[in-house]
């Protein structure tokens, strides 16, 4: 068996099956201990904000424009699973005033150590054709599959940490972006905040004229008055509509993956046929909203589980008279504290959703 054939066999029969097992276990940990993991993240973020403010009070740090959570593949081989958390001015990487702490992500990456030990033994049956370097390379290539859990956790906790007094106290640039990804490599926005007020009419035009070639994604659309918005087949993933007025709007077959609507007024709006995987509607007014034909379909392919790890969130929202008929893949939806008077729900979700007694009694169940 030559090198290429051996690697293919090793990956197919040993590496990939073991990786799938570890990812399944990690997903169980992610859901079971989510509250504690978010709490730990909040404490870490609080420490970072205190450090930033201390440097600013000493005149050592300009207003913050970027905060970045970075994983470093090279450290993983040394079984160090600390994320580097850095704060930059608006100049980003050109800011040479170091302001950084670490975040312990061993809860997400610890199983990599177990995998390395197991695979080191398995490779020996190939009589030297597969080396330790080959195993390490495969492990490093899998790093983004572990990072996706960290990414999802930060997304779940970000709305809370940006309300903490410690974050509000630091001096910020006109635009603040919190990102995560590989160190000085591919990364994505988790949160965007503009200090200057956006113009609703300008944003409305941008949304209407967005296209497949120029999608409008990962943007801060908070606190805007956008009632009666009419959008069809738009890619609006990971936009933040929190605290905005979107009453009586139409989002028809739009991609709204990871979008946030916390505290928004969306009364009477339609999300017919939209892709809502990982959307967050906590504390929003969804009275009379139509979700008919909407989908929360999670992505599952070759270990990739994002989007889909966060689930759909409707906690403490008003869902009176909302219509969930003919929705797809809404099994992982959360409704703690939500008002559901006269909410139309297919009965098949009764076994999946954790509902209170009063919610079950107030819902109109559809067959």
Strand percentage, roughly?
Answer: 15-25%
Task: Give the tally of structural domains.
Answer: 2
Mean pLDDT: 94
Report the total helices: 9
Would you list the SSEs in sequence order as H and E? HHEHEEHHHHEEHEEEEEHE
Number of strands: 11
Low-confidence stretches: none
> Distance N terminus to C terminus?
58 Å
Helical amount: 25-40%
Give a quick account of the main beta sheet: strands, pairing sense, barrel closure: 5 strands, mixed
Structural classification? alpha/beta
Q: Can you describe this structure?
A:
This protein is α/β, with parallel strands linked by helices and 367 residues long. It has two domains: 3-188, no CATH class; 198-367, 3 Solenoid (Pectate Lyase C-like), CATH 2.160.20. Helices cover 34% and strands 15% of the residues. The chain contains nine helices and eleven strands. It has helices spanning 3-32, 34-57, 73-76, 106-122, 132-141, 143-161, 165-169, 200-209, 357-362, and strands at residues 64-71, 82-89, 100-104, 172-182, 187-194, 230-232, 250-252, 312-313, 333-334, 344-346, 364-366. Strands 3-2-1-4-5 form a five-stranded mixed beta sheet. It has a two-stranded parallel sheet with strand order 6-7. It has a two-stranded parallel ribbon with strand order 8-9. Strand 10, helix 9 and strand 11 form a beta-alpha-beta unit. Helix 1 runs antiparallel to helix 4 and helix 1 (3-32) packs parallel to helix 6. The termini are far apart.
